[in-house]
Amino acid sequence: MINTGLTSFRVNGSKEWGSLIALEGGKEIPFDIKRVYYIYDVEQTVRRGFHSHNDLEQMLVCVHGSVKILVKTPFAEEVVTLDSPDKGLYIGPMIWREMFDWENGAVLLVMASKHYDEKDYIRNYDQYAEQAKVYFESRCEK
Ligand code: TYD
């Protein structure tokens, strides 16, 4: 799906010492990291997200436990399971996302390309779908 995709990070590790993953802006993370936040202590049945961003790139990593992410446009949708710290889900602009099925004390770490700006959010799905159709059609990509 355009503007989103799952990636695997290189693990430095051994059975003896454990594992380490290093993520750098402009390298493993395809943008300069301006902000990091993490979501945790979420009840398994809670569904959150329900928004898109006009102009924000993010990389999501479930550093503990597991969580499912629905990524959606007016043309396609997909559910990605983040269940290992070596998996990253890139989400670019104009992708609707919902996070659900939080298991085993999931901790979801998010790296973002911009500082927090509520004005960049689209929180109404119908409004999102209208804008996203124009956005993706103007790129001739779905
Ligand atoms: P929100 O992005 O709506 O969470 P989710 O999409 O996971 O349901 O953010 C929840 C609250 O946290 C909201 O009041 C805004 C605040 N917040 C910040 O202050 N800074 C941030 O970087 C983020 C992501 C959220």
Helix content: under 10%
Question: CATH superfamily name?
Answer: Jelly Rolls
The CATH architecture would be: Sandwich
Beta strand count? 10
* Number of individual domains: 1
Low-confidence stretches: none
Give, in order, the helices and strands.
EEEEEEEEEEH
Overall mean pLDDT score? Answer: 96
Largest sheet: 8 strands, antiparallel
- The coarse overall form would be globular
CATH topology: Jelly Rolls
- Hey, roughly how much beta strand do the residues contain? over 45%
**DSSP summary: helix tally:** 1
Termini Cα gap: 7 Å
Structural classification: mainly beta
Ligand kinds:
thymidine-5'-diphosphate
Cα-atom radius of gyration: 15 Å
Quaternary structure of the protein = single chain
CATH uppermost class: Mainly Beta
Question: What does the model show?
Answer:
The strands form two sheets. Strands 1, 4, 5, 6, 7, 8, 9 and 10 form an eight-stranded antiparallel sheet that branches. This protein has a two-stranded antiparallel sheet with strand order 2-3. The model has no long low-confidence stretch (mean pLDDT 96). The chain has a single domain (4-141), classed as Sandwich (Jelly Rolls). The chain has 142 residues and is mainly beta. The chain has one helix at 125-138; strands at 4-8, 12-14, 18-20, 35-39, 48-53, 58-72, 77-82, 87-91, 96-112, 121-122. The longest helix is centred in the last third of the chain and has 14 residues, at 125-138. It contains one helix and ten strands; from the N terminus they run ββββββββββα.
